[in-house]
Specification:
Elements lengths: L13 H7 L2 H4 L3 H17 L5 H20 L11 H13 L12 H37 L4 E6 L2 E7 H26 L18 H7 L9 H6 L2 H27 L7 E2 L18 H24 L13 H25 L1 E2 L1 H9 L5 H10 L4 H18 L8 H5 L9 H4 L2 H6 L9 H17 L2
Antiparallel strand pairs: 1-2, 3-4
Helix pairs in contact: 3-4, 3-6, 3-8, 4-5, 6-7, 6-12, 6-19, 7-10, 10-11, 10-12, 11-12, 14-15
């Protein structure tokens, strides 16, 4: 059944019908469509536009349709134009003429705008749950690795020693910001478009505040033209999802590097690795690689919607139907990526000795050696130069700063004493840094305490 056939005398060309139809993808929000329709007819009855009997008959019919679709006893007809027309046709088939009153005071334009908002609201909650779950996983790993030392990098060059807890804490902060962005989007989008009609409202005395209240919105939208043509919240969502994927992709890159034979910082669980069809020794980090690869897929959805919306005049245009497939795919991709990534991280094994060895043998304590000289009264620029010369000597001898003898140190400056070895130990290099946000044990324990409170207080 088409919702618009009266003005036409010819059937739609079959190819045109399929090109125009959206049932193949908008069928996923049948539940939201029925939820919106129930709220709509409840409001219509309260406003005296429907009788209570008609309201109850329609609501019972809609609930039966939802139950049957969910159970699988009512297959969705993929020849229908969209989910809205399928449900309305099925309702009329079940309850007769009363079903024809469902659409009173409503357009498909405000109906689909509502469905999409209801669907996105729910998915924001689902994604937020997965983000919190991975934050908890990383939080537990942080607590276990406050004294697991590894090199911190800049430019992919060993820089200064940090702890695994500190490194993982960076991603906790990223995912906390991701949750905050989703929360902001939810607040901004949580206004109800139903009652806006096609673009200019309706002559029926609709109680839009009541409809908004029934559906858990903060109130109705205030401009009917904007209500049916607004896709800002989807652009914001896709931007936020793209940022989540940036974080997962960066993390994936490090997992891949750390899992390599050259690093051996970690070993991925067999359940989150794959092998080679020809090389029996291989254990590949495919999940991390796929997450990294699928990041571009989510970016694509954002760019596609930005491009679709960039030159559309007010109000609704059929171009906007292109908002759904990319958004649905991006949501599915992010949810799957978060879930798999959480499983991969929670099951990996940490090779503490390899991490510490790498930190010790990469001159990551060079800055602390320079600071040692400064504390002995040598200007920092001179100290920097002295340690640079010592590092050249160590590279030539293939030794670390810890391996140098005190006599060798004194050849570069007489102020060196036996306490240089304490000053450049990994433990000292890390634990002297205790300003909030630094990797020192005192500082990282404070952050863990803050994160614990955050986890316990957030939904």
């Amino acid at each position: 059944m088409k919702l618009w056939g009266g003005r036409f005398t010819k059937e739609t060309n079959e190819m045109v019908h399929h090109f125009n139809a959206s049932i193949s993808y908008d069928s996923r929000f049948y539940s939201q469509d029925i939820m919106g329709s129930i709220a709509h007819v409840t409001m219509l009855a309260k406003s005296g536009i429907l009788t209570d009997g008609e309201k109850e008959l329609i609501i019972d019919g809609l609930k039966g349709i939802e139950d049957d679709i969910t159970s699988g006893s009512l297959p969705i007809d993929m020849e229908s134009e969209d989910i809205h027309s399928f449900i309305e046709a099925e309702l009329i088939n079940r309850i007769g003429d009363a079903g024809k009153k469902l659409h009173t005071g409503r357009s498909r334009n405000d109906q689909v705008a509502l469905d999409m908002k209801l669907y996105i609201r729910e998915e924001i909650g689902n994604i937020d749950f997965l983000l919190k779950k991975i934050i908890i996983t990383l939080h537990e790993l942080m607590k276990a690795h406050t004294q697991t030392y590894l090199p911190g990098f800049t430019h992919l060059q060993k820089a200064q020693p940090v702890t695994l807890a500190h490194h993982l804490g960076a991603y906790v902060e990223m995912f906390k910001r991701d949750r905050s962005r989703l929360s902001d989007i939810y607040k901004r989008m949580n206004l109800c478009p139903l009652g806006s009609g096609a673009l200019a409202g309706t002559t029926y005395p609709l109680d839009r505040d009541y409809t908004a209240e029934l559906l858990g919105f903060d109130g109705p939208t205030l401009n009917s033209m904007d209500s049916v043509s607004d896709r800002d919240y989807l652009i914001e969502l896709l931007s936020a999802l793209s940022t989540i994927m940036i974080h997962l992709s960066r993390f994936s890159e490090e997992i891949i590097i750390w899992n390599s034979n050259e690093y051996q910082f970690i070993e991925l669980d067999d359940g989150y690795s794959t092998g080679s069809s020809i090389m029996p020794q291989k254990k590949n980090p495919d999940i991390a690689e796929l997450v990294r690869g699928k990041t571009g897929r989510v970016y694509g959805a954002l760019i596609a919607l930005l491009t679709t919306m960039k030159s559309l005049p007010l109000a609704y245009n059929k171009d906007m139907q292109e908002d759904k497939e990319g958004t649905f795919d991006a949501i599915d991709t992010v949810k799957t990526s978060l879930s798999l990534f959480d499983g991969m991280v929670s099951t990996l094994k940490v090779n503490k000795s390899k991490m510490a060895y790498s930190a010790k043998n990469g001159f990551t304590n060079a800055t602390d050696a320079a600071d040692y000289l400064v504390q002995k009264g040598i200007p920092f620029r001179d100290a920097h130069s002295i340690i640079g010369q010592i590092i050249l000597y160590c590279i030539d001898k293939n030794i670390s700063l810890e391996d140098m003898k005190l006599e060798e140190y004194k050849e570069y400056s007489p102020v060196f004493e036996a306490d240089i070895y304490d000053a450049i130990s990994l433990e000292a290099c890390v634990n002297k840094r205790n300003t909030i946000g630094a990797p020192g044990l005192e500082a990282i324990n404070k952050v863990i305490e803050i994160n614990e409170a955050y986890i316990n207080s957030s939904k």
